[in-house]
Amino acid sequence: MGKNKNNYTVWSTRIKKQTSNNFIKVGSSINIDKRLYKEDIKGSIVHTDMLYKQKIISLKVKEKILWGLNRIKSEIDKKKFKYDISKEDIHMNIESRLFELIGDDAGFLHTARSRNDQVLTDLKIWMKGSVNEIDKLLVRVIKTLLNNAEKNLKTILPGFTHLKNAQPISLAHYFMSCVEMFNRDKKRFKNSLESLNENPLGVCAMSGTSFKIDRWYTTKKLKFSKPTNNSIDTVSDRDFVLDFLYNVSICSMHISRISEELIIWNSDQFNFINLKDNLVTGSSIMPQKKNPDTLEYLRGKTGVSYGSLISMLTIVKGLPLSYFKDLQDDKELVFNSFDTLKNSLLIFDEVLKGLIINKHIMLGAANKGYTTATDLADSMVKNLKITFRESYKITSKIVNLAERLNLSLEDLNLDQVKSIDKRLNNEILEQANIKNSVNSKKSYGGTSFENIKKMINKLKKEIK
Ligand code: ARG
Prior knowledge:
Blueprint: H1 21-27, H2 30-33, H3 37-53, H4 59-77, H5 90-102, H6 115-151, E1 156-161, E2 164-170, H7 171-196, E3 198-199, H8 215-221, E4 226-227, H9 231-236, H10 239-266, E5 273-275, H11 293-316, H12 330-353, E6 355-357, H13 359-366, H14 373-384, H15 388-405, H16 414-418, H17 426-430, H18 434-440, H19 449-462
Parallel strand pairs: 3-4
Antiparallel strand pairs: 1-2, 5-6
Helix pairs in contact: 3-4, 3-6, 3-8, 4-5, 6-7, 6-12, 6-19, 7-10, 10-11, 10-12, 11-12, 14-15
């Protein structure tokens, strides 16, 4: 190590030739993993403290190393650090600079650790922070949705199945369904913290170490909750990366489904919503256009997140234990997924805030397509004490009649209805009114105004 000059790799005594330049260009990960410099230095500081506490290095060496590491951190903070791709990654770049700054004592730092546990430690610390950031953005989106729901309690639109008008609902109920999705995402990310909180530091290359290290000490100082159990599994394991990429994919998929719905609602055929001008773009040829590019971006980016998940699944498939270079790509996938989701959540929140709701058009649409037919059938069951299957048949005949006469259910008069079944009366028909329909769904989780109001208040209290 004493002969470690800046232009030599640490293995240059063993490996006589410089690595192929072509390979250095693609095999180096410094341009990706330099993003981990804070975590790397933090991990090295705690490792150094532990080596001293365990009497593996002297006080003098510890202090020199800590001085050097802090100096390197400030160089990188101030963008004065020169990265060198021939040093492969952030770990080797920092170690090499430490040699320049403090000389041969830098060689003590890598006692009882390997880059294999080092990179995992850095990445897990970084991911814990990123999960936290995503959580905050999810809270922001959920609050916006709750606010939209509050403002649209009495906005009625058709709910769809098969994109055919099904039953009238409150728009607030729709927004609250989105709240459920993002609350599940929050939970999923939170659950991922359990494995992110297991400390890999100290498993070294793959079998542990004969040095009397204290993994519980580094666990505490690095704010993990326990050391990992098995050194081989630790350096091979990327399940926590897969969990993260999966969680990002599910969250993006939620954004994508809602975006698609909003794109449909924004179409000239539906015209349920418009987007504020800062959320649309124009056409280079068609002067009239206002295109919902923001929503299309959100829908499209989901493909990028899925790509990262599938890439990582493919990388680990068939990979024997323990560490292989193949695994190096994990960070790029995590960073890309994180950045994409972060941008998506920010833009999605703006879109939700910038929705212009065309309430009359929504209400008009809710009146089309016989959306209260189920209410009519239900009402017959209650008033005539008949089975639902019987009332379903009678109602189908009424719908057929309305369709033939080109009328809505509400427009049919009693005589017309009685021609289908003599037992029908006005009380039964009145139930087939849009507002009644929405407000009658008082079953837990249903769309009645009262239900939604309660749920908004409950979830507003719970969100943090
Ligand atoms: N840059 C490497 C990676 O991210 C660090 C671990 C290298 N370990 C090794 N044995 N080559 O995977």
